[in-house]
Amino acid sequence: MATRIRLQRHGKKGKPFFHIVAADSRAKRDGKFIEKLGTYNPNTNPATIDIDFDRTLSWVQTGAELSDTARAILHYKGVMYKNHLIKGIAKGALTEEQVETKFAEWMASKDAKVAGKTDGLSKAAIADKAARFKAEETANAAKAAEVAAKNTPEPEVIEEVADAAEAGTEVAEETVDATAEPVVEVVEAAAEPVAEVVEKVEEAAEPVAEVEAPVAEATEETSSEEEKTAE
């Protein structure tokens, strides 16, 4: 039975998550497996890889086949390099102490590169966020300026409004003057008949006054005679 180290897909649509497994080469990709060796999450940057180093190395040493992606992952984690150094011990080219020293140096270098990449990505993310924030501020300022420009009338419009207001004042004054003249004429015309009536009333009052005088005198004489008779 040939054993193969490969990836077994999990996760939801658009966000895959893989298990690194040792399985029978004849089994389906997502079918049964012999042993789970680790996980691989490509959704992070850098990708997150967590493996059981010793068990994976053991499977590699026993001749397990590797899929292309699994081989790249094991190179990245140093499994393949450690297997190469161990083969040097079998050939007498290296001692175990030398293998451990070389591998420790390689891991330190690898960790430094990963840390540098992580820092670079963090700085890039911060710079990108600042750039997007500045671009948003610029866009908002431009939009505010555009709205202010729309709400502010142009000088020509202001002059036209002022001219219209002035013209309206002149028209109002002319209208008042034109309306006042007929009113005065009507009042004057109405006053003339009233004056004539007053004159006629005064003329009619004169005969009445002439009649009232003799009546008053007669009344006084009658009163005098009544007083003498009473005595």
What does this structure look like?
By secondary structure, the protein is an alpha+beta fold. The protein folds into three domains: 3-94, Ribosomal protein S16 (S16 Ribosomal Protein, Chain: A), CATH 3.30.1320.10; 95-152; 154-206. It is built from five helices and five strands; from the N terminus they run ββββαβαααα. It has helices spanning 53-61, 68-77, 79-91, 96-151, 155-230; strands at 3-12, 15-24, 35-41, 48-51, 65-66. A five-stranded mixed beta sheet has the order 4-3-2-1-5. α1 (53-61) packs across α3 (79-91) and α3 (79-91) packs antiparallel against α4. The model has no long low-confidence stretch (mean pLDDT 78).
Helix content: over 70%
Shape: rod-shaped
The radius of gyration computed from the alpha-carbon positions, rounded to a whole number of angstroms, is 60 Å
Q: Quote the average pLDDT.
A: 78
Low-confidence stretches: none
Q: Which homologous superfamily in CATH is the superfamily of the largest domain?
A: Ribosomal protein S16
CATH class label of the largest domain: Alpha Beta
The largest sheet is: 5 strands, mixed
